[in-house]
Predict the structure.
Amino acid sequence: MSAKLSEQILPFLPGQLARAINQAAAWDRLEEIRIRHNKPVQLISGCLDKDKQSKPGSLKTDTFLTNVIVTDEMLRIIFQKISNYSTYAYKEELREGYITLPGGHRVGICGRMGYGDGGNRRVREVHSFNIRVAHARPGCSDSFFEKLRKGEELMDTLIISPPGYGKTTFLRDIIIHISDGLSGCRGRKISVIDERGEIGCTDLGLRTDTLSFCSKAEGMVMMLRAMGPEVMAADEVGSREDVDAMRLIRSSGCRLLMTAHGKNADDVLKRPILGRYLKEDPFDRYVVIDKDQNGKRTVIVLDGQRNTIW
C-alpha cells in the first residue's frame, strides 16, 4: 500500500520536493502533507490500529523537512500538475478550494482569490497546499456493521465526524459490506453519488453503481430513476437540495447511507437545514467517529433517539 500511495502522490510534486518527502515519510501512517510558501514541508502522521496500546501522544508525529524550503516555482509546478495544466477544466473543483487526485487524495489550495469573467471566483496566487492522504482500511467497519441492520434490513445511517477523521474511509468500507453481502448481510444494489471523485477511488463491490462529478442532490434523483437502487450513498450532505433529495429517496423505500461534518450528533442537529430535517425524520443509526492525539479513531454507534448501542 505504501508504494502505491507514493506512486499516486509524488508524480504531482517537483523532483526535489518529492525525493525529500519520500525519504522522510512513513506512508502507512501519513495523514497530511502541508506545503507552504517559503517554509519547510510539514508531514503529519498518526497511528495504526496495531499501535493502540501505546501511550497517548507517543505516536502522533509532526515533522518539518528543514532541508527543503518551498519556493514560488515549486508551488507553480504543483498547481500545474494537479490541474493537469488546465485550470479551466477544474474550475468547479477550484471553487470548492481543492482538487481530488487519483486514489481519492484531496489537495486543499490556499492563496489569493480573484474574480474572472462573469464574476466567477478563481485562484490567482497559490500560497499553500494541504494534501490529505487517503488510506484504504479494509474491514474497518467489521466490528460495528451488524449494528447498522435489523435482521436482513439495512437501516438509514448517517456517519458523522469533523473533517479529516475518516468519514469517507468508513463510508467506502460500509458500501463494500452492503454491495458484497459481508458480515451476514444480503448483498444489495447500491448507488453511490461521488460528487468530487473521492469515494470511488477503489473498488466498491459487486453490486455498486457510481455516478461521479455530479451534484449530490441531482445525482441521487438520477440514480433513483435510472438504476433502481436498494441503498443510496453520498458524502457530506447538508444543503437544502440534499435534504429534498433524501426525502424523495426515503419515500421511495430506498435506504440512505450518508455522511456529514460534525463533532457529534448534537452538532449536526443544530444545523439549520440538515438538523431540522433530522429532528422531523431521524435516521435509524448515527455513526460518530472521534480521533485522539495519536490519530487513533474511536467509533460510537447511536440509535435514532441518539442512545449509544455500540
